[in-house]
Amino acid sequence: MKLEYLVAIVVLLFAAQFFYGVAANPDSEFGGADGAAGDMVSEIAPGYEPAEPWFQKYLFEPPGGETESLLFALQAAFGAVVIGYTIGYYKGKSKAN
User: Could you tell me the pTM of the whole model?
Assistant: First the structure.
């Protein structure tokens, strides 16, 4: 019972922090680390040209952004199922003993 309360408190704190951040900065864009790194490199060394990669970047390149989003969502769902199954397995195992 204590675990459920702890998880609920953590989820509520995370949600409050997220919604406060969105409310405090309504026009903000969520940029990734790649974009921030590229901007920083351009600021430090304006004439920098990256070297040609020595390996092929992708084994498979999805045909569009929607496919890439779908693959990311499937990966997240698979991870959630694995984590949920593991937690449920050990919870059931502890109740059986």
Answer: 0.43
